[in-house]
Amino acid sequence: MKFSDSQGSAIVEFIVFVLFGQLLVFAGSLQIAENIDQKVRLELFASQLARAEAVGKAELLIEELRNDYRLPDAAVVPEDCPRRLVCLRVTSNGAEAIGMSVKNV
Q1: What pLDDT shows up at residue 85?
Q2: CA 19/CA 53 separation, integer angstroms
Q3: Who has the most CB within 10 Å: 20, 36, 79, 97?
Q4: C-alpha dihedral over 58, 59, 61, 66, to 10 degrees?
Q5: What is the mean pLDDT of residues 4-16?
Q6: How far is Cα 20 from Cα 26, in angstroms, rounded to an integer?
Q7: CA 61 – CA 66 distance, rounded (Å)
Q8: What long-range pairs does 75-80 form, CB within 8 A, spacing at least 24?
């Protein structure tokens, strides 16, 4: 096969550009999947921590929840909400989630 004629060049171009395009799409989809995974873990962490706070067990469970959801750097900030509710804002790596639960009274 000669690469100097147009047919050989077209085959090489097709292989290179298609493979390069597929690699770009694959890398982009991996990045999107990673972002979605982090957001879902953060949402679950926030809701579980709010529930733990509502039953008075947040101090015991916060480190366990951080390990379970692989969020060691998650910052938790209490939010203002009605007395019957517990509201928390959780941030990690630029992502943010709010957890809310009803207090057990």
Answers
A1: 93
A2: 51
A3: 97
A4: 100
A5: 70
A6: 10
A7: 9
A8: 76/49
- The pLDDT value recorded for residue 8 is 60
3's CB contacts (< 8 A; 6+ apart) are 9, 12
| Cβ pair 72, 59 in contact under 8 A | no
Yes or no: say if 87 and 79 are a contact pair by the CB < 8 Å rule: yes
Does residue 45 contact residue 69 with C-beta atoms inside 8 Å? yes
Cα 76 to Cα 91: distance, rounded to the nearest angstrom: 7
Predicted confidence band of residue 16 (pLDDT cuts 50, 70, 90): confident
Cα of first residue to Cα of last residue in the chain, in angstroms, is 81
pTM reported for the whole predicted model: 0.76
Contact 58, 99 (CB under 8 A): no
**Type of residue numbered 65:** L
pLDDT tens track for 48-94: 999 999 998 989 999 999 999 999 999 999 999 888 999 999 999 88
Strand partners, 98: 89
